[in-house]
C-alpha cells in the first residue's frame, strides 16, 4: 500500500514538473541600462520622441531627449519602439483563482459576512500560469482582491515576477473591500450578487445597516483607551479609520454610490467606488466629495436597458471631463490581459491616447496609493517599464518586446506561447 502511494506521488510530481514552464523570476539588476531612440510615453500626458530612458539598481535615473550613456552600462537601441510605464491591474483575483470550474484552485473568499482581518496577500500564488499571460501584454503590477460576504478583507498590490508572496508584495493591505448588496433585481448579469429577492431594496438596506453598525462599533472600539479583550475584526479597521487604508466599495447604481458617499462622510474614510457603471450620472458629486472610481468591465453591455449601447465605452471620458479620479479594470483574473486594449477602446470614445494610458498607469497608481514610486516614467521611480514594437493600447499592433520590473528584465514567455510553438511545429506551419 505504501509503495503504491509512493509511486502515485512520484507520477503526480513528474506530471506537475512536466507541465511547468521554464520561467523563473529575474535576478536583481546588475548594471545600468539605457533604452535609446525610443518614443517614450511618460504616463502623465507627456511624450518624448526619439528619447532615452536610463535606470540602475531598479530605479529610473534619467528620462529625456538627450541622455548620454555613462560608465559600464548596457545600451539598447529601440529603433523607434514605444516605451511605456507598466500597466497596473486593479481589482483582480489573479493568483487567487486558477481554474474557475475547479474549487480546489479557488482561494479568493472566506466564510462569513464580515471579515476585515482576512488578507488576500497570503493566498497569492506566484506560480499561477495566468500571471505570465498578463506580463506579455505589458501588465506588471496587480491589486489582488478578496471577494465574498459583505466585508471580504484587505487587498494588496503585487509585482508580477516573484518566487513567493513575500517577494511579490509591493504594497500590502492597501484597502478594505465592502461588497454592497444590489438594491434592485437586474438578473444574473453584470453587478449581480446573491439570490433574487422579492424586495431587494429592503433586504439590501438591512445588510448595509448591518455593516454600518459594525463600522460604528469598530470606531467606538478604537476610541477606547483600554480593551477588556482584543477584537481582531475591530483591530483590522484601525488603519482604515486612520486613513492609512482606503475603503473600496463595490457598487454600480446611483442609489448605491450615494450610500457610499454617506459612508465616506459619516466615518471620515477614503472611499473608492469599484464598478461605477452609473458613475457618469453623478460625476460632479463624486468630484465634490473626492471619491475615486475603478471602472470595471469597460467592454460590456450597459447596465440598464435605457442606457446608450456604448455607455460603458464612454464613461471614462465623462469622468475625465468632470475631473473625477478614475482608472480601468477588467475584474476577474485572466481577463486582465486585455486591460491595455480596453484603454484603447476608451480613447476611441472621448479620451486622448495619453489620457487612456494614464487610466491604466498613473491613475491606477494614485488610487492604489503607489503613485510616489510607480505609474509614470520619471526619475526616482521604480523602473517598471514595458517596450512595445507598436501601440501598446492597440490589439493589432501591440507586440511587447521587453519588460522590466524594478529594473529586472523579465521573461515574457508563457504557456500559451509554448503551446502555439508546439503545434506550429507539429503541423509544420510556418
Topology:
Blueprint: H1 2-19, E1 33-41, E2 47-56, E3 59-64, E4 74-77, E5 82-85, E6 87-92, H2 129-135, E7 139-144, E8 151-159, H3 165-168, E9 169-179, H4 200-223, H5 232-235, H6 238-241, E10 246-251, H7 254-267, E11 270-275, H8 283-288, E12 292-296, H9 311-322, E13 326-329, H10 339-348, H11 353-359, H12 362-368, E14 385-388, E15 400-405, E16 408-409, H13 415-426
Parallel strand pairs: 1-4, 1-5, 6-7, 9-10, 10-11, 11-12, 12-13
Antiparallel strand pairs: 1-2, 2-3, 5-14, 7-8, 8-9, 14-15, 15-16
Helix pairs in contact: 9-10, 10-11
The total count of helices amounts to 13
- The rounded Rg comes to 23 Å
For the biggest sheet, the summary is: 8 strands, mixed
User: Class by helix and strand content?
Assistant: alpha/beta
The proportion of residues forming helix, as a percent range, comes to 25-40%
The termini sit apart by: 50 Å
Strand % is 15-25%
- Mean pLDDT, to the nearest integer, reads 91
Number of strands: 16
- Described by the principal axes of the CA atoms, the overall outline is globular
Tell me the CATH superfamily of the largest domain: Metal-dependent hydrolases
CATH architectural name of the largest domain: Alpha-Beta Barrel
Which CATH class of the largest domain? Alpha Beta
Any idea how many domains?
2
By CATH, the topology of the largest domain is: TIM Barrel
What's the helix-strand series? Answer: HEEEEEEHEEHEHHHEHEHEHEHHHEEEH
Amino acid at each position: 500500500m505504501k509503495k503504491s502511494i509512493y509511486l502515485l506521488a512520484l507520477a503526480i510530481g513528474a506530471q506537475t514538473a512536466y507541465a511547468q514552464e521554464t520561467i523563473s523570476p529575474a535576478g536583481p539588476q546588475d548594471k545600468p541600462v539605457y533604452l535609446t531612440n525610443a518614443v517614450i510615453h511618460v504616463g502623465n500626458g507627456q511624450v518624448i520622441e526619439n528619447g532615452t530612458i536610463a535606470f540602475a539598481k531598479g530605479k529610473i535615473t534619467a528620462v529625456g531627449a538627450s541622455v548620454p550613456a555613462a560608465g559600464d552600462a548596457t545600451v539598447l537601441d529601440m529603433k523607434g519602439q514605444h516605451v511605456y510605464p507598466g500597466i497596473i491591474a486593479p481589482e483582480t483575483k489573479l493568483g487567487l483563482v486558477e481554474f474557475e470550474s475547479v474549487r480546489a484552485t479557488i482561494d479568493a473568499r472566506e466564510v462569513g459576512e464580515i471579515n476585515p482581518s482576512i488578507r488576500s496577500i497570503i493566498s497569492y500564488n506566484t506560480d499561477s500560469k495566468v500571471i505570465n499571460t498578463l506580463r506579455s501584454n505589458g501588465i506588471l503590477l496587480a491589486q489582488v482582491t478578496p471577494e465574498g460576504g459583505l466585508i471580504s478583507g484587505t487587498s494588496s498590490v503585487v509585482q508580477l515576477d516573484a518566487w513567493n508572496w513575500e517577494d511579490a508584495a509591493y504594497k500590502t493591505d492597501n484597502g478594505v473591500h465592502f461588497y454592497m448588496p444590489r438594491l434592485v433585481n437586474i438578473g444574473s448579469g453584470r453587478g449581480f450578487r446573491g439570490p433574487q429577492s422579492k424586495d431587494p431594496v429592503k433586504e439590501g438596506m438591512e445588510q448595509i445597516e448591518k455593516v454600518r453598525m459594525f463600522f460604528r462599533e469598530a470606531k467606538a472600539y478604537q476610541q477606547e483607551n483600554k480593551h477588556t479583550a482584543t477584537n481582531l475584526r475591530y483591530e483590522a479597521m484601525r488603519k482604515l479609520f486612520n486613513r492609512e487604508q482606503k475603503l473600496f466599495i463595490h457598487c454600480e447604481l446611483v442609489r448605491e454610490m450615494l450610500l457610499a458617499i454617506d459612508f465616506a462622510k459619516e466615518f471620515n474614510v477614503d472611499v473608492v467606488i469599484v464598478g461605477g457603471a452609473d458613475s457618469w450620472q453623478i460625476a460632479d458629486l463624486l468630484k465634490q466629495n473626492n471619491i475615486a472610481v475603478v471602472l470595471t468591465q469597460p467592454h460590456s453591455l450597459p447596465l440598464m436597458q435605457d442606457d446608450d449601447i456604448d455607455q460603458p465605452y464612454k464613461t471614462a471620458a465623462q469622468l475625465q471631463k468632470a475631473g473625477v479620479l478614475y482608472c480601468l479594470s477588467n475584474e476577474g483574473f485572466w481577463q486582465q490581459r486585455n486591460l491595455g486594449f480596453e484603454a484603447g477602446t476608451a480613447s476611441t470614445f472621448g479620451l486622448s491616447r495619453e489620457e487612456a494610458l494614464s487610466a491604466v498607469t498613473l491613475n491606477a497608481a494614485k488610487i492604489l496609493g503607489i503613485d510616489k514610486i510607480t505609474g509614470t516614467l520619471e526619475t526616482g521611480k521604480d523602473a517598471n517599464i514595458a517596450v512595445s514594437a507598436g501601440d501598446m493600447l492597440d490589439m493589432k499592433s501591440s507586440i511587447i518586446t521587453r519588460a522590466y520590473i524594478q529594473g529586472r528584465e523579465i521573461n515574457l514567455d508563457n504557456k500559451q506561447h509554448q503551446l502555439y510553438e508546439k503545434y506550429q511545429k507539429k503541423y509544420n506551419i510556418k
